[in-house]
Amino acid sequence: MRLYSASSEETLRARKLLTDWVGEGFLTKAQYQLLEKETVSELRTTNIFLRLVLFLFTLISVGAAAGLFFVVFLSGPSQQTVGVFLLIFTAVCYVAAEAAASQARLYRYGIEEALAVCSVVFLCVGLQFALFSNSPYSPKEFVVPAAGAVFSLWMWRRFGFSYAFLAAMIFVIFLPGYWTSSREAQRLIIAVFYAIGLAGAATVRSRHRFDYLEEAYSLVEAFLWLGIYLTINLQLSSLNLSARWWDGTRAASEFARPFYWGTWVLIWCLPPIVLARGVRLKDRFVIAVGAIVAGLTLVSNKPYLGWPRHTWDPMLLGILLTGVAIFLRRWIARGPGGIRHGFTAARLTGKDKQWMDVGSTVAGLLSPQTPSPQTSSQDFRFGGGHP
Amino acid sequence: MSKSWAEPVAPGSNAELWTWCPRSGERRLHDHPRAIRAMEGAGQNIAGAARPFGGPLSWRTPLPFLELNVLLYAGVLAFVGGLGWTVSTWSQQLGDVLVLTVLSTMLAACSWYCFSRAPVWSSAETPAPSPIFDYVLYLGSLVWSIELAYVENRFHVLSGKLDLYLLATAALFFFLAYRFDNRFVLSLALSSLAGWFGLTISHWSAHQDATYCQYALLYCLLVGVSGAVLQRRSLKPHFFGTYLNIVANVLFWALLSGVFLPQGYGLWFLVLLIACGASLAWGLTRRQFAFVAYAAVYGYVGVSSLFLRGVTDKSAVLSYFVVSGVAMLVVLVQIGRRFGRSA
Questions:
Q1: CA B292 to CA B276: how far, in whole Å?
Q2: Same domain, residue pair A219 and A101
């Protein structure tokens, strides 16, 4: 089912590791050159910047080509006609993506990725226009997001694009709206879909603990945990979120009370479960999601309970986050050899440093460090105690 | 970022060399990628490990440095956000004395921590003396900004001359960045300086007149030349990348806003082409592909705006995008083949 052979992907992974190691000084130049000869892959890769730019220009070319086709060859076409042609474009884009990957051996090159993305978009829009353009609303329209989800999953399996899995999860969100009007049931259905996916991913990934698929399954599991959490946290996924958070009113009236309070219990239960699983598997992505959902639970607890927010709440959260980070670092560092239960807080990869350098530059630029001249305007005043 | 948290590291050796033995909780050097088998076959010890290959090695997993730093950064940012919000909301109830005392105490504590723990200054890259050092400095810088904003808004010390305030803040942040070798604060300094030049981001969308473009060019010139001179003098040369990336982006935005002017855009366009050429050459020679991407994207936007100026025919516009998009793809693929294989 997978487009690339396991040996090709394993070789690429080994090559990537070699590059990391030589950057770290673990390998000498001579050792690296020796190993490099052993990890020659027939797949064509590129760096992240060229990949992004190639993705962008492929999107521009394909989108413009489709638009040009309709402008030049069809004058005032019906929506069904547009839909049918879009479905043809779906096939064309998909075949092109397959050819780019299998014939030109492109691997995460941007071009085949953009073609695959275009094929999913064309499929959904094409189905909508071809099948449902005349009826204002039909319960059968669930076919559109369902097709999008299935096709995205196929892209994930076939090409290994992690974001295709995320796209499938997003398509799933639209499905239950066609089946039931109950908001509780809609959320339950989404959560059940994600939970089934999670069970499947957890089962499969144990077979790939140390091969090239480990990263893919780790990411998928992290996405699914996050999806489940966001589905059950009624405060985060409500539409009038900001208004409710400010005035402290609860979303309880929109949902049945047992369901509402059940989700409140779950948002407290889920973070420790995710964190525990991540720690047990030593899975970086899952632990990151565990930390994120723990933070979100703290942030959304007050709105859940209908308690008013205070201006100093972010300060308390900041103190907590900083305290946890310092405690963890010190606790691990005090272990024998700076290791506890297989964890160490020492910086071990040069990539971490690179990310830190880039991140600190961007974070510094985006920080609210200085009031811009607008702060002297009449609208901005220090004062009166009205948050 | 490396692939997952299961990044095994044996003491004195290296990562990803072993398979995991579930019963003993150890990893063994057997079933590993081809490259490692080749090394093993060649009898070479990849990382100069103390143990011979094949022996059981206890494994550990890095709790990445990166995640803990993100947590610290989020904590500092949340704290400062809440502090600013509280001060701006409750200042009348709390009173100026209390607010200024609290802010000054925090500022003094941060300054004391940084100056008392900082290693002797060196012009080379210096590691932070403690894991939280950078964040204490960052917190101090942000608290300074809040306090200064409070003083100015309450007492109008500078009587509205915010440009002086921004310039002084930028100077202070530059000093701190170079004293403590901190990129966070260097970025704060560069954006404060940009603010002094009238370059706050909010201006970009609202104004596109030539004045802002000229100010932006002046900013780029000043920052770029300063960065280059400091690098040549080996004064924290690792900061040069930060200077260059900021200058490149501001420069391209300024040139593009000049190209989008209704009149007198020819010179701006010419300079844009020169800048794109320079960015491309720099990116390819130094293998810094972000600059190749800047040249491609900013250059494409500029050239497209010129070609499509006044064109209203849909098919002409779409044809342009098809042809130019494919042309860009061909050029970029060629560049990728020759230069950009490193994943």
A1: 8
A2: no
